[in-house]
Design goal:
Oligomer: homodimer
Structural class of chain A: alpha/beta
Largest sheet of chain A: 6 strands, parallel
Number of helices of chain A: 11
CATH class of the largest domain in chain A: Alpha Beta
Largest interface: A-B, 30 and 30 residues
Shape of chain A: globular
Distance between the termini of chain A: 37 Å
Strand content of chain A: 15-25%
Number of domains of chain A: 2
Number of strands of chain A: 10
Chain lengths: ~270, ~270
């Protein structure tokens, strides 16, 4: 099988999805990536399902018009609400972050006591809970929204006393319930992995949907013949708004320089 | 002068501007109000000036098409970036929250040591700082973004240990500098007034742009003859997205029931 040189298309409500791009570059280094961050309308996590589906459809159309071979919804809220609609409407494979996160949680959890933290939208959608229950009906499943974590990450308070206090409060009911696995169901949360791990304690395994998603893509696209001498994949960034300080925030998520993003308007 | 029965038009990026509506109803009880919350694109505070002006123009057009007699920009970020543009483009008077906040701060501050807290967008715009410097060039003016306060208000953690810790950290440089007045330059912050007052201490006077703005409207529109027997003003709510839990959040901001909001799409 020879390699399909078309880029992978990744979209997110903002910059959080760059944690998925970071993992894709690690696991599929020669794939080119087009990333769309809908920074003009970020966040999606506190908006209704109807609005999120409308935004996700516009994001996906933008990527398909640029000739991508697959769409990655690197946003948990959009994956929860729009995966089915996008799979029906677009002619390329569509990947979300929820299925891979669920599969990883099922692999990691020994005792079947699984917690999920995410935005209000992701948790209220019930997408993780239902998928886990379908696969493992006997599991204890507990999900709570943790809406302060995204602003804490964007403020870069990754190791701050207030962050620890907030995490202790958010995680207390999970620890009381004796979970053995915690799913970080938001692309921002991998940046808090250390603080979350410290608050959860060594008995709780952390599952990160971003790297689980990248692993699924690697299975789908990593099997092709690697042409030696191929230049490493390019990452092209499109944004619907260019906020102040974008490069430094984006660099934290991507784990490296982000180049010059291009500003676009969706319709 | 007889009373102009057309409604006042108020817009905000989301529900925060309802603190302005609350004050308008207190100070101008017989005025009808049309409120537009751009909840599909909320927040504006971390977006670029160009994008905020584009959104504000669409918001204002929506209100003008509904026959309002004045536009109130009940959003500090939009006031900072778009007041001039909207005043030029629309045929009705346009009020922002910054000028009234600045005037109130100048009245309250005895020693001319004024602090300002707001979103990243409001603070980076320099609008408060410049207006204060223009009016009182000898003042000490200090402004810092406090981006975690909006999510704390939306989480309703108004009196939480983490909120106190975060406020202590945010206010420390202001207290070191010896400010005598602190401007709450974001419509969400009046809900934290008590916690901010406790953290700032009794020597610091708090100025709230929402009530200062309503007072300016009361001067502009309160002079007319009140027709006795007039029904109390109605508040009509339009939103670009209807998020989960909207009524309870909106009720906290408005200080009472909000009725049924109507969902609209702007173009």
């Amino acid at each position: 099988m020879s390699r399909d040189a078309r880029p992978l298309g990744v979209f997110d409500s903002g910059v959080g999805g760059l944690t998925v791009v970071r993992e894709l570059r690690r696991q599929l280094p020669d794939e080119s990536i087009i990333y769309l961050g809908d920074t003009a309308r970020v966040p999606y996590g506190n908006k209704s399902a109807e609005t999120v589906v409308r935004f996700a459809r516009e994001d996906a159309r933008f990527l398909v018009e640029r000739g991508v071979k697959a769409i990655v919804i690197a946003c948990n809220t959009a994956s929860a609400h729009a995966l089915g609609a996008l799979r029906e409407e677009f002619p390329v494979p569509v990947f979300g972050v929820i299925e891979p996160g669920v599969q990883a949680a099922l692999r990691e959890s020994v005792g079947g006591r699984i917690g999920i933290i995410g935005t209000a939208g992701t948790i209220a959608s019930g997408a993780y809970q239902e998928a886990l229950r379908r696969e493992r009906p006997d599991a204890l499943i507990m999900a709570e929204p943790t809406p302060l974590l995204v602003p804490l990450v964007e403020e870069a308070w990754l190791d701050h006393a207030a962050t620890r206090l907030i995490l202790d409060e958010y995680l207390a009911p999970f620890l009381t319930a004796g979970i053995d696995t915690l799913v970080l169901a938001c692309t921002h949360y991998p940046l808090l992995r250390e603080a979350i791990g410290a608050a959860a304690g060594p008995a709780v395994r952390l599952v990160d949907s971003a790297s689980a998603c990248a692993a699924q893509l690697a299975m789908a696209f990593g099997g092709g013949e690697l042409v030696s001498g191929l230049p490493p994949g390019r990452v092209e960034l499109f944004l619907t708004d260019l906020p102040r300080g974008f490069s430094s925030v984006a660099g934290r998520f991507l784990g490296g320089g982000v180049g010059n993003p291009k500003l676009v308007t969706l319709e």
